[in-house]
Amino acid sequence: MTGNKITFWSFIQKNKIEIPIIQRDYAQGRLGKEYLRQGFLANLKEALDEEDDEKELKLDFVYGSVENGKLQPLDGQQRLTTLWLLHWYIALRAGKLGKVGCILKNFTYETRISSREFCEHLCDENNFKTFICAHCKYSSGCSQMNIVEFITRQTWFYSAWKQDPTIQSMLRMLGGTKINNKKGEDIIDGIEELFGETSLERFEYYWKELSSDSPIVFYYLPLEKFGLSDDLYIKMNARGKQLTMFENFKADLIGFILEQAESEQDNSKWKSLSNEANGIPIKMDTTWTDIFWRNRSESKRIDEIYFAFLNRYILNSLILGLNSADEAEGNKSFCHLYGNKGNDTALQYTNFEFYKIPSLEAVLEKLQTTLENFHSFISDRKEESLKDIQKEFLPLWDEQDDFRFIPEYKDNSITVLTQPQRVVFHAICRYFELGKYEERSFKCWMRIVWNLVANGNINSIESMIGSLRLVDELGLHSHDIYGFLASDEIIKSNVASEQQNEEREKAKKIIEDIKWEEVIVSAEKYAFFKGAVRFLFRNENGELDWGNFNQKWNNAQVFFGKEGAYQKDTMLLRYFISKFTDWSLFWGMTFDNADDSWRTVLLDKKWIKPIHEILISDNIEIETDYYSCLVSFESQYETMQKKVQEELVTTKLLEHIEKGCSLNWRYDNYVLYPYNVKADWKKYIIANKRNEILSSLYEGKISCNDKQKGYIYTDQKIENCDFFWGRNIQFEYVYKSISYWFRWQSWGWIDMYEGDIRLIDKKTPFTDKLVIDACLINTTEDLTRELERCINDYMEYKKVFG
Asked: What residue stretches are annotated with the GmrSD restriction endonucleases N-terminal domain (predicted)?
């Protein structure tokens, strides 16, 4: 490392350190940071106790600039303040404060009068003469009060200082808290707690360590040599009042880079990454900060979005090195960085171990190139907001998409990434990793990426990993993606293979004649097509055919626009079904007008022939004498299957059933109902004679007044078509002005009921007659005759059994 490695004591002897007003309050001593203090202080003491003189505790960079002969730390105030308190306390307990107090006074605050005066009072030996005898061994049994009690009871300690957040944090760092961990044990989070049982001799040893060749070091970089502007200085310090997870992560990341750079292994890459002029440490606090500053919060915070971006980048890099979803889900780093079901906004930084992924140096090199090129890109457009710039990253068909490459603050949180958006995130990173921004190539790349992502069925970790690998592979050609796709060069990944083939054909067409790009893009962003339009240039056999493109495109606009035919009624859907000539086409289809339902049949090869036919049709009217031409391979069911098609095509059933219905075979009947539905009222039995027969006798709902004899009444009739909802149909039949209850069961019997009791279940000689075999019912007359026969038997039953 080429930076200036230095100890705190050497640093403060040579420099008057002044914390500028723009810096946040001292945050390491805040409530809620107990575990952070515990860990940091333990590391400091461990370094002091280390017997190996060669071992050092290397802290993060401290950047600073000299103003009016005073060094103002740009970054590192938190560490410097804690180190100052550590030196002060050990000097006090070693009896050295009188000798070194004048040097410790070199640490001060610019315009925070209270903080400055407090530090000055701490450095005055006379203020602590009554605190503790220099030869007393401090222990819990000592009669002297603790350091915080002593300080706050002094006449020089103003009561107003109890409201100063920096002073209170300093006192908390000195004395710790009484907060316990989950085991009920006190968390050692204060300097006095940490050194509680230490003898005078040991304090003298510690002071010698600190003031001579201290094992605690950091790197100092003077920023004047980099020519940083004042506005960038502000950005680097606009991270809110509290110590953030990002600051801890950044410190550990840079510390790890420095450690690797000084290792004995081949470390040329790490040395480059740690370079003081253009390595990651300086970039993180300068040009990279400038990127996220463009999306700062109203309170001028950037740490959360900065941290999220780096987490997402590192996670994607980790994923690309894994072999399967199972391996990913068993990887501790993946589980940590992926967050709760992909939501990483609540990710907690605990330690750096999760970030030590394979080939981290290569990952960081790529990250460095990516962000440098991205910074160059947005720097050329300073007059535009990053929010406006990022509109170029959205799918052409949805300018309101919530994808954000650089996260934004929203509703007290930050924007998240869905699984598909994580793939797009990587695609953008890949583009900038491999070169600088060029408007034409970037626009083409984003179009192809969104087309692949929208049609890649990314709904699981496994599918996300596959799509990430596809985009990573294609990313090598991201600056000339059309040329690559048109070349027919092999793509190893078979993810979204249908869409890959489509993009190849469209790329060839565009390269052949650039005029095609405009019409293809118009089609891709139309309606719900989302980049997939192969149905416009495939014939009835699924073969490439651009000859009918214009006619198909014109019809597609008529059919599927906002006011398109597909939304007005079911005419287009019924016309489409009328073109089915194979029974297999009915299976796997959703019989409604939802966008996703139409999108499925438009893109699946299975329905290519009927889709081709409707798109080249001059009109979609159904012939009044329509009959099914269906060819069935199950001759015993052919009549029934043709009946299914005819009912779906010629009636208005599809206008009235629940959305999401598909065809199923249940109860020896063809039944329409939504996926996984359990409620009987959402099931519709079709191609069954009971619909027609019951409809012919239907006169109204059960609540109807003035019921007519010889008719049925039920609440299960679907209005305006001769169908009923429900697996079983319960109805009243009026005979001689009296209503009797029956239920036409799905298994082929019509049972008579008395209230909720099925009469056949009473098991008497008469009750066997109180049921009708539906197989005998073929006409309205058949049903009327059997219902009345059953009623007469019921009356005989009542005479005997009452």
From this structure: 11-253
Q: Which of 214, 258, 223 is nearest to 75 (CA)?
A: 223
CB atoms within 10 A of CB 756: 6
Task: Give the integer Cα–Cα distance in Å for 604 and 583.
Answer: 16
Are residues 491 and 473 in contact, defined by beta-carbon separation less than 8 angstroms? yes
User: Which residues have C-beta within 8 Å of that of residue 757, sequence separation ≥ 6?
Assistant: none
Query: Per the structure block, which two tokens stand in for 281?
Result: 């440490």
Closest CA to 233 of 246, 223, 241: 223
Question: Where do we find the tokens 């209230």?
Answer: 755
pLDDT under 70: residue ranges of the chain: 1-3, 21-24, 110-112, 132-144, 182, 223-243, 264-266, 565, 633
Q: Which pLDDT does position 238 carry in this prediction?
A: 53
Torsion of CA 300, 303, 308, 309, to 10 degrees: 80
State the residue for tokens 């960081």: 364
Q: How far apart are CA 467 and CA 660, in angstroms?
A: 28
**CA-CA distance, 496 to 458, in Å (whole number)?**
10
**What pLDDT is stored for residue 3 in this prediction?**
55
Return d(Cα 320, Cα 341) in angstroms, integer.
19
Do β-strands 712-713 and 698-700 pair in parallel, antiparallel, or remain unpaired? parallel
Strand partners, 4: 220
Please give the Cα distance from 568 to 690 (Å, whole number). 30
For 308, counting Cβ atoms within 10 Å of its Cβ (0-12 exposed, 13-18 middle, 19+ buried), the class is buried
Domain ranges of the chain: 4-227, 229-381, 549-686, 689-801
Cα–Cα separations (whole angstroms), residue 461 to 341, 403, 418, 733 = 10, 19, 11, 57
Identify residue 60 by its one-letter amino acid code: D
CA separation for the pair 553, 516 (Å, rounded): 13
What is the predicted pLDDT for the residue at 755? 92
C-beta of residue 722 within 8 angstroms of C-beta of residue 651: yes
pLDDT number for residue 52: 80
In whole angstroms, what is the distance from residue 743 CA to residue 720 CA?
22
Q: End-to-end CA distance of the chain, in Å? A: 104
